[in-house]
Amino acid sequence: MSEAPAAQDADQDVLVVRQLSDGILRLTLNNPPANALSIAMMDALQAALDDAGSDGDVRVVVIAAAGKVFSAGHDLKELTAHRSDKDRGRAFFEQTMRQCSELMMTITRLPKPVIAEVDGLATAAGCQLVATCDLAICTDTSTFCTPGVNIGLFCSTPMVAVSRAAHRKQAMEMLLTGETIDASTAKEFGLVNRIVPREYLRTVSDKYASSIASKSALTLKIGKEAFYQQIERPLAEAYDYTAWVMTENMLARDAEEGISAFLEKRDPKWSDR
C-alpha cells in the first residue's frame, strides 16, 4: 500500500476519498480545513460506508482526514443559514441531527471493524465520530473536545458516543466544561486506543488494520455485533445472549477450520462462512 495520503492525488471536489488495498478500505474526509460534517459530507461518508458493508473485498475500514483538523463537527454556517426558514430552521436541524445519528449507527452496525485515524482536532460531532469507531489511533498532537456548551448548544448527540467510550464522570467533564483535552488525556478517558508520533500514524493504523483484515470476516461480523448487543444488556441477559452467539459461531465453517488449524499447528484458511 502506498504511504502517501490518499487525498493528495484525489480530485479536490471529492468529499470522501476511497482507497482499497489488501482488504483495507481507507476513507479520507477531504474538505479541509474543517472537514465539517455538513449534509454533503455526511451523504458522502454514508454512501461509502453503505458500499463497504456489502463489498466482500472490504474487511476493515479506516476513517482518516486531510489537513490539520480531523473534523470540526457540524457545519455551523450551514445550520445558521436555515434560521431564516419559516420554521426557524427546525426541519433542517432535525434532518441534520437525525442524519448524523444514522451515520453513527451505520458505523456501529457495519459488519466490518472501523478504525479512526486521527491527526489533529476532533471536536463536537467530529469527536462523536472518533468515539463511535471501534478503534481509534491518534497522533501525539491530536486534541479532542465537545465544546457545544460554550456556544449555548449542548453536545447531546455527541454525548451518546462519548459517554459510551469514556468513563461517565470524564465524559461529563468534557461535556460540561467544553474544554479541549490532549491525546494523553483522551487515552486516559478511553476515547483512543493508541497515541503515536505523526510520522508513524499511517504505519500503526495499517498494522492494526492488516491484523484485523487477516481474520475471518464472518467471525469479525459475529463478534462486533455481539459486542454492541451485549454491552447494553443486564449481566445475566448478556451471558445468555453471548452463550447463544458462541454456540452459533461454533457451528460456522471458519470456527471448525480455525480450531482444527490451531490443533494441527498450521495457518487457517478462511472461507468467511
TrEMBL record:
Query: What does the protein in this record do?
Result: May play a role in fatty acid biosynthesis and insulin sensitivity.
Q: In the record, what terms sit under GO molecular function?
A: enoyl-CoA hydratase activity
Q: What is this protein called?
A: Enoyl-CoA hydratase domain-containing protein 3, mitochondrial
Tell me the protein family, please: Belongs to the enoyl-CoA hydratase/isomerase family.
- Native organism is Hoeflea poritis
InterPro entries in the cross-refs: ClpP/crotonase-like_dom_sf (IPR029045), Enoyl-CoA_hydra/iso (IPR001753), Enoyl-CoA_hydra_C (IPR014748), Mitochondrial_ECH-domain (IPR052377)
NCBIfam families named in the record: PRK08139.1 (NF006008)
Q: Which UniProt keywords apply?
A: Fatty acid metabolism, Lipid metabolism, Lyase, Transit peptide
A Pfam entry, by short name:
ECH_1
